[in-house]
Amino acid sequence: MKLLEAYVLKRVWQMFLTALLPVLAIIWTTQVLARINLVTDSGQSIGSFMKLASLILPTLIPAVMPFALVIGITQTLTAMNNDSELPVIDAAGAPRSIINRPVIVLAAALCAFSFTLSNFVEPKLRVAARDMIAAAYADLLSSVIEEKTFRRVGDGLYVQISERLSGRILKGLFVADSRDPNFDLIYYAREGAVDESGKALVMRDGEVQRKAPDGNVSVVRFDSYSFDLSELSQTRGQARYKANDRDLFFLMSPDPTDPDVIKSPGEYRAEFHERLTGWLMPMVVALISLVIAGDARSHREARLHPMAITLTTALGLYWLSSYTVNLVERSPAYTPLPYLVPLVAGGGALLVLLRGRALRMPAAFTRHSSGWLSAVQARIDGIDNPKGGPR
Q1: Closest listed residue to residue 132, CA positions, set 58, 198, 45, 229
Q2: What one-character DSSP code corresponds to residue 390?
Q3: Which of 241, 292, 293, 323 pairs as cysteine with 77 (C-beta 3.0–4.6 A)?
Q4: How far apart are CA 321 and CA 278, in angstroms?
Q5: Are the C-beta atoms of 315 and 322 separated by less than 8 Å?
Q6: Which of 278, 287, 282 has the alpha carbon at shortest distance from 322?
Q7: Per DSSP, what are the bridge partners of residue 206?
Q8: Which residues, other chains included, contact 78 with Cβ-Cβ below 8 Å and sequence gap of 6+?
Q9: Parallel, antiparallel, or unpaired for β 217-228 and 169-177?
Q10: Are 248 and 309 in contact (CB under 8 A)?
């Protein structure tokens, strides 16, 4: 790689990381805080919470990376143009490939990284996160491990214990069950224990109060009572995998007996085609960025900031790609559309680069904007110097 190419690559890479890391940190924080209930509901340690947070972080990178690349390329090339570096390179007779090649090499590397991360690494991390959450909720002893505190372990089900002893023994049990709309149940017991399977809470030496909707209350004392937890353990302790949790090989040939595949076959079809097209986005936005910001321009030329134009275009492509993927979920007839978005956008930008033509604003827009700017400047000059004297 030539000296100028290495220089451009270094500056784009540094700006790319400068844009990627803060945005990634903000999005990661919001996603992690949305899962704080792992600690509050299940009584897990902060170490478990941080492990879950570390599993979430890599899954956010593919979505943020194209926009960080746009900022890195456009900001670098705009700064080089403002510092007269691009005009000097053009005046020296250097080919445009001096600027284009390092950017395309970086975009290709990011595409390969995105493909590997999205199709092989990210699904495993998602599965590990789901298994971790399911395991945290599977053991109801963990859900009520905090003594002398009401713990919600399900919709309409609250448990409190006064003391937890070794051997899975719980002292001073209080259970409030309002899951059945026909009556409310309140259990008191001196002691109890969750069996080894986690499907039953066996209470001893207590009473149960049953309150009907009409306000009548009946009290029954018991020496031993088994409270069924099988439904709760099954629903909260079993990880359920979605289409975005599967790797590429599973999406190629989904298991026809999988309950989620049977329930939502369109999601698996759409996820498969999204995996085959989403990784191309860094290359597409890199080519568009080179078209918009890669040529030397005069400071007097009227134009919007390249970053604003390219980011708007990238957001539009991202929305269009997501929209076409949603269409594929509805019907397989729309399958070609997700592939057309990156191919048409990237191919058009590549064609412009190969022809060596720079995009310019329409002459009419430039003429009108120049007249408008001149009028504004004249009005400012009149305000600053109302008497028309020398400034």
Answers
A1: 45
A2: -
A3: 293
A4: 8
A5: no
A6: 278
A7: 189, 222
A8: 293, 305, 306, 307
A9: unpaired
A10: no
Tokens linked to 238: 């079993």
Say how many C-beta atoms besides its own lie within 10 A of residue 74's C-beta.
26
Q: Distances in Å between the alpha carbon of 64 and those of 6, 22, 58, 75, 357?
A: 25, 11, 11, 17, 30
Side-chain-side CA neighbours of residue 364 (13 Å)? 0
Count Cα atoms within 13 angstroms, Cβ side, for 200.
9
User: Within 10 A of 150 (CB to CB), how many other CB atoms are there?
Assistant: 12
Q: For 45-49, 81-85, 357-361, which range has the lowest pLDDT when averaged over its residues?
A: 357-361
* 63 and 110 Cβ atoms separated by less than 8 Å: no
Residue showing tokens 């990880």: 239
More confident residue, 338 or 388: 338
Bridge partners of 154, per DSSP, are 157
CA atoms within 13 A on the CB side of 325: 18
Measured from the Cβ of residue 34, the count of other Cβ atoms closer than 10 Å reads 9
- CA distances to 94, 102, 265, 291 from 98, in Å: 7, 7, 47, 14
pLDDT digits (tens, 9 = 90+) for 99-158: 899 999 999 999 999 999 999 999 998 888 887 776 666 555 555 456 677 777 767 788
d(CA 225, CA 210): 14
For tokens 């023994």, the residue is 169
Q: What local confidence, expressed as pLDDT, does residue 376 receive?
A: 56
Closest CA to 127 of 8, 237, 6, 246: 246
| Nearest residue to 52 (alpha-carbon basis) of 151, 130, 118, 111 | 130
Residue 155 pLDDT: 72
